Structure formats: structure tokens, C-alpha cells
Amino acid sequence: MIFQQWLENSWLRRHKTKSREITDLLQIVDRDLQDARERHISTDCRFGIAYNAALKLCTILLYAEGYRSERALQH
After folding, report:
1. I need a surface site. Which of 40, 47, 56, 61 has the fewest CB within 10 A?
2. What local confidence, expressed as pLDDT, does residue 74 receive?
3. Running along the chain, 75 residues long, what does each successive block of 10 average in pLDDT?
């Protein structure tokens, strides 16, 4: 499916991305990946934290292309 179809389905919208937004997301990814390495928390929690980092990386890709997901459909 192409971005145009996602726009027509209201799953995405156009977004004028600021470099600060991407910087902030990269900082979250770095933090989450560091937290996911911690051995004193459960494996399930570590997986959840790493999953959140992966979602943020996907968001960065969308932002870089000038799009953003609709808030209710971020996963």
C-alpha cells in the first residue's frame, strides 16, 4: 500500500517535520535501548521498552518523509 492510500484512509496525514522532533525521538530511542539492557527488570518489561524504541524509529521514518500517523492509529 502506498502513502497516498494511507492518506485517503486517514491513517496518515501530512506533517511538516522540525529537526528538533527527530532529535527528541532519537533521544527517546537511545534512552529506551539503554533501559532495555537493564538486567534488574523483567524480560517482559525489557521487551516492551525495546518495542517502544522500535515504534519511535518507525515514527522517525514517517516524519522524515513528511507524514505522521493519526494519533489513534500509532501502532
Report:
1. 40
2. 55
3. 83 93 97 96 96 95 91 58
For residue 21, the enclosing domain spans 3-73
**Dihedral class, residue 66 (left if φ above 0, else alpha if ψ from -120 to 50, else beta):** left
Residue with cell 524480560: 43
pTM of structure = 0.82
Compute the distance between CA of residue 4 and CA of residue 24 in angstroms, rounded to an integer.
Answer: 27
Q: How far is CA 23 from the centre of its chain?
A: 12
Which residue blocks in 1-75 are alpha helix, DSSP H? 3-8, 19-36, 43-64
